[in-house]
Write a structure and sequence with these properties.
By secondary structure, the chain is of the alpha/beta class. It contains 10 helices and 5 strands; from the N terminus they run αααααβαβααβαβαβ. The chain has a 5-stranded parallel sheet with strand order 2-3-4-1-5, with helices on both faces. α1 packs across α4.
């Protein structure tokens, strides 16, 4: 998904730059219809050639430089009469750093493309439903004086390390459980924003939305199914929030949850789950197969958070 988005951004840059170049060239060609400007431009070309020769052979070029300055002034006066300036003949680049090529002077993606990528990823992943927190902010202040303060400070450090090492992390899955309002969404938001800003693809869905997607997949003709599952199965990080709040549909909810988790584990992709349910309730609701995936000792870091409801403290 990341590669496709970058490709699309670069294509948009190319199209925009081409359009601006055409506009700038048209302005210049129209300006040349003015005889005073056309004469000044022609003389400037001749004088520039003379100056180049003089400098190459070590000949005094003082008079030529004076003549160039005088001719440039004539050109500027002609432009002023047409309500134009020299900058009108240069494409209006949106990014002065890369001049809308998408790459900096070192041949790497320009920061403007990276910013566009982040915006695309945020829109694509559906993060509008999540909180907007980052590790760069002092997000632990939200837990000051709460029962979970100590455990959350440690958990934030663990999750920061997870982001720093991503995608080469010890665990592929993270399961955050605990009552409503203890801070699970804070953590999820910080992780998602951090990874998106590094250019990784993140897909955020609630358990209800996940259930809806897989139901559509299940009931759609085979040749039209891919659009519903592609991102679920390919995103660098999939976040399923509020697991346990979705309606249970026979042959859909449990089966597709198990298949999605299994596929992502087999392909070394990362998944984060949040739930209000404890281990016993997860076992009862989803059965042994899903439970074994959610609590797989080799692949999953599971953390139960217990404490105050932060929303009641506002």
């Amino acid at each position: 998904m990341r590669r496709d988005i970058i490709k699309k951004i670069l294509a948009e840059y190319k199209e925009y730059k081409m359009g601006e170049t055409i506009i700038a060239e048209e302005r210049y060609n129209n300006a040349l219809k003015n005889p005073d400007f056309a004469l000044a431009e022609e003389n400037l070309k001749k004088l520039s050639f003379t100056l180049a020769k003089q400098e190459a052979y070590g000949i005094d070029s003082t008079e030529t430089k004076k003549e160039i300055a005088k001719t440039k002034k004539l050109a500027q006066n002609a432009l002023k009469a047409m309500n134009l300036k020299e900058s009108d003949f240069t494409p209006k680049y949106r990014c002065k750093n890369c001049k809308d090529t998408g790459y900096d002077e070192n041949g790497k993606l320009c920061k403007c493309v990276k910013q566009k990528l982040i915006e695309h990823l945020k829109s694509k992943c559906g993060m509008s439903g999540a909180l907007d927190f980052r590790f760069s902010e002092n997000t632990c202040d939200a837990f000051s004086g709460t029962k979970q303060e100590k455990s959350m400070v440690g958990l934030y450090k663990t999750m920061q390390l997870f982001c720093e090492k991503f995608p080469n992390t010890k665990y592929r899955n993270i399961l955050l459980s605990g009552p409503t309002g203890v801070g699970k969404s804070y953590l999820i938001s910080a992780v998602a924003n951090d990874l998106m800003e590094k250019g990784f693809s993140v897909l955020y869905v609630t358990a209800f939305e996940f259930n809806d997607l897989v139901l559509k997949y299940h009931t759609t003709p085979i040749n039209e199914r891919n659009e519903y599952m592609d991102d679920l199965l390919s995103a660098d990080l999939l976040i399923i929030d509020d697991l346990g709040t979705e309606p249970m549909r026979k042959n859909v909810s449990i089966d597709y949850l198990y298949s999605t988790i299994s596929y992502r584990m087999e392909h070394n992709l990362h998944t984060i789950f949040s739930t209000n349910l404890d281990a016993n309730n997860l076992m009862s609701r989803y059965g042994e197969r899903v439970f074994s995936r959610l609590f797989h000792k080799k692949y999953t870091y599971a953390k139960r958070i217990v404490g105050d409801d932060l929303r009641l403290k506002k």
